[in-house]
Amino acid sequence: MKLPQPLIGATLVKRYKRFLADARLADGRTVTAHCADPGRLPGLAVEGAPVMLSHSDDPKRKLAYRLEIIEQDGVRVALNTMNANRIVREALESRAIGGFGEYDRVLPEVRIDSSTRLDFALQHEDAVSRYIEVKNVSWNR
Questions:
Q1: Closest by alpha carbon to 71, among 46, 96, 108, 101?
Q2: 87 phi and psi, to 5 degrees?
């Protein structure tokens, strides 16, 4: 999956109010970015951490910047939780993830009963469906 291009390198100044983060751009400006990950981001959201932002000119958005990636100890962590299922779907459809056996179809948002929906089902005409639930983890210890 391609992330919004181009991503803009910056440095994290602070994370606050659950969905907001301030970042310093290369030109010295500080901008406020939306952080889609509602978690506390322990070990990640530390002052001075390298981050990557996307930018949008959409006038309907409250903030022009979105925090996409944060880096700690040389490891890049995706923070935009909206991308997790898109990335997994693309990987399943292109057979980039092994271990699921043979399957012909990738079905997203599958209802297994009246109150339960799972992220994906992998179906094969000769086999039982395999169900997948995707979780986005952003924790560094």
A1: 46
A2: -65, -45
Phi/psi of residue 89, nearest 5 degrees: -60, -45
- Ranges assigned E (strand) in the chain: 8-16, 20-25, 30-34, 50-55, 65-72, 75-78, 105-113, 116-124, 127-132
Residue 84's pLDDT band (boundaries 50, 70, 90)?
Answer: confident
Residue 122 to residues 37, 89, 92, 116, Cα–Cα distance (Å): 27, 11, 9, 17
The pLDDT tens digits for 8-59 are 999 999 999 889 999 999 999 999 999 988 888 877 889 999 999 999 999 9
Q: Which domains does the chain have, with CATH numbers?
A: 8-81 (2.40.50.580), 82-132 (no CATH)
What is the distance between the alpha carbons of residues 14 and 19, in angstroms, rounded to a whole number?
Answer: 11
Burial 29-65 (b: 16+ CB within 10 A, else e): eebbbbbbbeeebeebbeeebebbbbeeeeeeeebbb
64 neighbors 29 (Cβ within 8 angstroms) = no
